[in-house]
Design brief:
With 116 residues, the protein is of the alpha/beta class. 19% of the residues lie in helices and 35% in strands. It has a 4-stranded mixed sheet, with no helix packed on it. The longest helix has 9 residues. It binds copper (II) ion (CU).
């Protein structure tokens, strides 16, 4: 198993490219990312993450905001100043969301495997 792991490490780039990373790499890829809500904007407006990433929105604005996926796949309560909302993205895809209080506020999470 050790020898096999060493071999896989040598072929790491290839392994990721073909979409078959060793399990321990998946654990590494499962990380976190942050989106700031301020001045009626989500920053970054488009965030690209690997599957398994937990995204946390923090409302740094003086106004309440929310995070609502357009098809209702996830939604936060109204977030007051300094409130946070987290969502883990397991499945690859694009997730468009908006603020239910100010629908002109929009953002997007793009979930795609590393190397794709
Ligand atoms: Cu808002």
């Amino acid at each position: 198993m050790i020898a096999k792991t060493a071999l896989l490490s040598g072929a790491l780039g290839l392994a990721v490219l073909v979409g078959a990373p060793p399990r321990e790499l998946s654990a590494d890829a499962a990380s976190s990312a942050a989106i700031q809500i301020d001045n009626f904007h989500y920053t970054p407006a488009t965030l690209v993450v690997a599957p398994g990433t937990t995204v946390t929105w923090t409302n740094d604005d003086d106004s309440p905001h929310s995070v609502r996926e357009k098809d209702g796949k996830f939604k936060s309560a109204a977030l007051d100043t300094d409130d946070k909302f987290s969502q883990t993205f397991a499945a690859p895809g694009e997730y468009e969301y908006f603020c239910s209080i100010h629908p002109y506020m929009t953002g997007k999470i793009v979930v795609k495997p590393a190397g794709s």
